[in-house]
């Protein structure tokens, strides 16, 4: 039996997707995130696809920042720097992937070649983390920035942190329900019962893009327009899948895709990747961050092929 290119891809990667669904996804992507559908120029170089700086990885949480960095590379940015907030030396070496550069957070913040930042993966919430976040927000006010996890918990403690930045409209916040409850000083149940109102309130309060994560994540623009994401499944209910999302959106921002496209495309790709895995013979239970990132890479490549 002659194995066609696509079948070969499917068999090699274990990914399975109905061809009609893939055509539908390609048409949707061409309309809503056309940048994702452009094949790479033969003259590209790693600078073409930007450099993502990720600050986080406090003691015991090196996995979080490493998952975000690995996902960012799988989603196509040119370079990734990980800035560990409290480098316990052996940990970064344990996690080091040859394609990812490692640094301390202080050293990374001195770099001027970063085209987007992700702050918060495993940052921790003690005073030194707060100082680090404040520096990031004040020093890096002209580069798009995604705040996740502990960065959100710090903003919940000091809401004025975000207003110290010149332009909040190129900031993306990605709280899960627990982090959103902290940001709004309410209960998780109240958020669950009023998701649209909660995500709109967060976007208007901080003047930023907000992804309220969970089943059918909601995305609010800084002026309060809300859209619901239709991809994804409970296979994502595993530690690290939010760090992967932060890396995916951060990667698209680093590739100079505007925040309003990067946020919708990133959430959609992340959920669609999980749907591809759930439809494969593996099934949804036990998805790990690396598989989600690999499926995002596989899907990104399919989107550049003709419908
Ligand atoms: N491998 C690693 O190093 C990992 C590190 N992580 C880091 O750990 C720190 C704490 O993050 P966590 O999110 O784990 O801890 P949190 O304390 O922020 O959130 C966990 C709690 O939030 C609530 N919650 C979250 N989503 C909910 C939902 N959809 N519905 C209802 N309740 C919900 C639940 O009470 C849950 O126990 C962050 O900095 C994060 O980046 C995590 O990302 C997991 C992986
Ligand atoms: N039942 C579900 N259906 C769809 N997506 C889910 C579900 N549960 C979790 N997710 C997604 O998984 C991710 C979880 O993020 P988060 O809780 O921050 O994970 P972590 O911090 O452990 O990396 C979010 O993108 C969320 O939308
Ligand atoms: Mg998280």
From TrEMBL:
Cofactor(s) the protein requires to work: Mg(2+)
Enzyme class: lyase
EC number: 4.2.1.136
Biological process terms in GO annotation: metabolite repair; nicotinamide nucleotide metabolic process
Residues the entry annotates as binding (6S)-NADPHX: 122, 176, 243
Keyword set, alphabetical order: ATP-binding, Lyase, NAD, NADP, Nucleotide-binding
Gene Ontology molecular function, alphabetical: ADP-dependent NAD(P)H-hydrate dehydratase activity; ATP binding; NAD(P)HX epimerase activity
Residues where AMP binds: 213-217, 242
Catalytically driven reaction(s): (6S)-NADHX + ADP = AMP + phosphate + NADH + H(+); (6S)-NADPHX + ADP = AMP + phosphate + NADPH + H(+)
Similarity annotation: Belongs to the NnrD/CARKD family.
Reported function: Catalyzes the dehydration of the S-form of NAD(P)HX at the expense of ADP, which is converted to AMP. Together with NAD(P)HX epimerase, which catalyzes the epimerization of the S- and R-forms, the enzyme allows the repair of both epimers of NAD(P)HX, a damaged form of NAD(P)H that is a result of enzymatic or heat-dependent hydration.
UniProt xrefs under HAMAP family: NADHX_dehydratase
Quaternary assembly: Homotetramer.
Protein name: ADP-dependent (S)-NAD(P)H-hydrate dehydratase
Source species of the chain: Snodgrassella communis
Gene: nnrD
């Amino acid at each position: 039996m002659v194995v066609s290119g696509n079948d070969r891809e499917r068999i090699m990667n274990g990914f399975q997707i109905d061809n009609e669904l893939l055509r539908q996804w390609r048409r949707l992507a061409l309309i809503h995130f056309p940048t994702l559908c452009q094949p790479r120029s033969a003259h590209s170089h790693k600078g073409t696809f930007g450099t993502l700086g990720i600050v986080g990885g406090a003691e015991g949480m090196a996995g979080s920042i490493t998952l975000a960095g690995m996902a960012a590379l799988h989603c196509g940015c040119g370079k990734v720097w990980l800035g560990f907030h409290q480098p316990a030396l052996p940990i970064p070496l344990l996690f080091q992937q040859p394609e990812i550069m490692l640094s301390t957070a202080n050293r990374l913040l001195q770099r001027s070649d970063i085209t987007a930042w992700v702050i918060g993966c495993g940052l921790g919430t003690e005073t030194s983390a707060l100082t680090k976040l404040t520096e990031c927000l004040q020093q890096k006010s002209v580069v798009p920035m995604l705040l996740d996890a502990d960065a959100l918990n710090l903003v919940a403690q000091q809401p004025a942190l975000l207003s110290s930045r010149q332009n909040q409209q190129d900031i993306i916040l990605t709280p899960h329900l627990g982090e959103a409850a902290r940001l709004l000083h309410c209960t998780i149940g109240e958020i669950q019962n009023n998701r649209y109102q909660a995500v709109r309130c967060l976007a208007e309060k901080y003047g930023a893009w907000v992804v309220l994560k969970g089943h059918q994540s909601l995305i609010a623009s800084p002026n309060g327009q809300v859209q619901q994401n239709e991809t994804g499944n409970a296979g994502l209910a595993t530690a690290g899948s939010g760090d992967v999302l932060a890396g995916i959106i951060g990667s698209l921002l680093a590739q100079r895709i505007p925040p309003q496209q990067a946020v919708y495309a990133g959430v959609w790709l992340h959920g669609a990747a999980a749907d591809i895995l759930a439809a494969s013979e593996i099934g949804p239970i036990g998805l790990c961050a690396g598989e989600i990132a690999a499926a995002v890479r596989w899907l990104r490549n399919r989107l550049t092929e003709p419908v």
